[in-house]
Write a structure and sequence with these properties.
Largest sheet of chain A: 6 strands, mixed
Distance between the termini of chain A: 48 Å
Strand content of chain A: 15-25%
CATH class of the largest domain in chain A: Alpha Beta
CATH architecture of the largest domain in chain A: 3-Layer(aba) Sandwich
Strand order of the largest sheet of chain A: 2-1-3-8-7-6
Number of helices of chain A: 15
Structural class of chain A: alpha/beta
CATH topology of the largest domain in chain A: Molybdenum Cofactor Biosythetic Enzyme, Chain A
CATH superfamily of the largest domain in chain A: MoaB/Mog-like domain
Shape of chain A: globular
Number of domains of chain A: 3
Oligomer: homodimer
Chain lengths: 415, 415
């Protein structure tokens, strides 16, 4: 199997100022392409350290991907180190990258300085993949038997270049023929899900494998992979198993892509031409934030009321004070009254509401982590209690995800 | 200077399933204690790889901190590898950790299995620091001239143990005597701030240094450090320079601790006994989410209205439709009407409102990244336009931070 190492270069990582997210994204893309990542390393901006570490990684791997150290300031010495490592004696200008450099500086209203133009100069030993999102080009070096890809450190530039780098790797290395299909699920924990799927999973052909990738916010992502030879019929065999998997998952599955709940819910509402609103107590605005984080959400999300104080529940949402007194703020009755109230106030087709205890303290009756979620719509109000066991921040996130999923199931049942 | 390496162990990092946040937190704590981190490495759960990599890191560093590979399943072989590396021939039980293991499983309603109890067994060569948040203890090994700390991989367990580990390092190694003071600022970019502070910074004594740690959400964190000898008067000298720095910063400084804007604003409101509400268009609930992410925020945050649709601005917040027609949704007039409307509706002392374009598309007049922020309170409404140049997600975050800061400055001016 083709082996790779990922190396991030820069003091800002070693002093803990920045969390390295590039390595994880690169490793994930390599793994999906059938390349095994043997090691990730973060090193300083010191020349000896860069050359020594890269030489060792190159001797142990077919591919080394670096990020960082390509900026215009004097700290950034990766390019010089790579020139030395690859035996380059001179730099040549890449005209296309130079044009991009000028365009970017111009669009930001900045003068073009010598050290900016130097970004488009590359060692003669380097092959260039253009960086359309920044000034430093991606450089590809053949060093001994191995290939080194040098990517910029700015995450959105590194990730922007990644698909082209992966294509380059696919063209240059004998990779396994891997097919992947992803489905997103919500509502069942990884352990319970694996129990449900066990009989089907055990009967999978030898060349197929199911991976569980749980996330608190988006549920369990399932990736079904076929490690094949490119033979005919492999794609159909994968699709057949996927169909069986979908049958087992039922309405727990919310997307057949690598998607988020808020995105999938948005597509559903767009398709139906329906609108939604939210009334939030314990989630404090997070549900509205999730809805509006999706581009184009103004087509279906009308707005929300964060009713943190009891007076706002009563005055703005019209929750009767007797209901609050009789059942308590954290109750099915209050959740439903909030959902009904906000749907009426904002005039939406559907609504969702939350009332609960995100922490750190309970209310003397319900423990921290208790939430009542309600929805309202053409079928009338529905509500359900959920219990989680996290700190405040994570409870708010889980309550919000659970609310989006509860709404999704209600909308589906109303179809 | 004492040198350290950080090593995370586990296949889940190498396949890109998990972003390694432990290394960054550990590096940051080491750096603050005066230890230089030379390298971070992520390796697989393979015995040879663990032993080979750790041996090399130990030969090059005074301290090695590992996280991960200590779970109860058969993948987790770090403890065995460390036993071999440290020349241990037998395991002994740590009674206190055993008690914690039993307590934790009991509180989760789980049976106590043999592999759980095995968590409390440690190589005889290990000194134990208790893990009060999980089942695997922190193990300390002296190997040759160096010391290895083995921490669990679960982030909140690793971070929970970190202060004790740092104390242990401080007691065992000759560290520089470092004093730090942190202040948080908002409203000026790093480059402009550094220009403002340059004369003062240039005049700092040789043993003092100012570090700029910019963050989009919390502004620029400034850390003033004194690298001393423990001599008398060092602390006073640092305080003197801090006083000068605070004078230069004026009301850009919002906290003298490592704090967030929403937390500092919460403390201010609590101290004044005043309440606040929000009306959000383009920030879509994020301001409410920031307010309510602070424990105890119900004492001052009454609630908010997310008025994504124009109809909600008119019907719920009472923004006159003529104002919207005349000035457009993204305008000072609409922002102020929203702030006035929500303050009246929810009955709060202060309010804050946003209307703008987070992206991806503009409105034909204003470019993406334009936001009008308004506040209302005892001094009457105030508003200001800000322009940012980011993608949707980051614009929403920056708009929200700018709004919190605008409100903070208004409240201060109303005192």
């Amino acid at each position: 199997m083709t082996k790779a190492a990922v190396c991030t270069i820069g003091d800002e990582i070693l002093i803990g100022q920045i969390v390295d997210t590039n390595s994880s994204a690169i490793a994930s893309a390599l793994e999906a392409a059938g390349v095994r990542v043997t090691r990730m390393v973060s090193i300083s901006d010191k020349r000896d350290d860069i050359i020594g570490s890269l030489r060792k990684l190159l001797s142990e791997n077919d591919i080394v991907i670096t990020t960082g150290g390509l900026g215009p300031t004097k700290d950034d010495i990766t390019k010089d180190a790579l020139a030395e490592l690859s035996g380059s004696t001179r730099y040549i200008e890449n005209a296309e990258q130079k044009e991009i450099v000028c365009e970017i500086l111009h669009s930001r209203g900045l003068d073009i300085l010598d050290n900016n133009l130097a970004q488009a100069m590359v060692p003669e030993t380097a092959r260039v993949i253009l960086n359309r999102l920044g000034t430093a080009p991606i450089m590809v070096f053949r060093i001994g038997e191995s290939v080194l890809y040098s990517l910029p450190g700015v995450p959105h530039e590194a990730l922007g270049a990644l698909p082209e780098v992966i294509e380059d790797i696919k063209a240059g290395f004998p990779l396994s023929h891997i097919l992947h299909r992803t489905v997103m699920t919500f509502g069942m924990a990884e352990s319970a899900l694996s129990k449900l799927l066990e009989p089907w999973e055990d009967a999978l052909p030898e060349d197929m494998h199911l991976a569980y990738l749980p996330s608190m916010l988006t549920g369990v992502r399932l990736r079904l992979s076929l490690y094949g030879s490119g033979a005919e019929g492999e794609s159909e065999r994968l699709e057949n198993e996927l169909t069986k998997l979908k049958g087992l998952l039922g309405d727990m599955m919310y997307s057949e892509q690598d998607d988020t709940l808020e995105n999938a819910l948005g597509k559903l509402l767009l398709r139906l031409g329906k609108t939604v609103s939210a009334a939030e107590s314990c989630t404090g605005g997070e549900i509205a934030h999730l809805f509006t984080s999706v581009s184009g959400s103004s087509a279906y999300f009308l707005g929300s009321v964060t009713s943190y104080a009891v007076s706002v529940k009563e005055k703005v949402l019209g929750v009767p004070s007797e209901v609050i007194e009789k059942h308590g703020v954290v109750s099915a009755e209050v959740a439903e009254a909030m959902a009904i109230g906000v749907r009426k106030l904002l005039g939406s087709d559907f609504s969702v509401a939350t009332t609960g205890l995100s922490g750190p303290s309970g209310d003397g009756i319900n423990p921290v982590g208790t939430v009542w979620i309600a929805v309202d719509g053409p079928l009338g109000p529905r509500s359900r209690r959920f219990n989680y066991h996290n700190d405040r921040k994570r409870n708010i996130e889980r309550f919000s995800s659970a609310a989006l999923n509860f709404l999704r199931l209600y909308i589906i049942s109303a179809l």
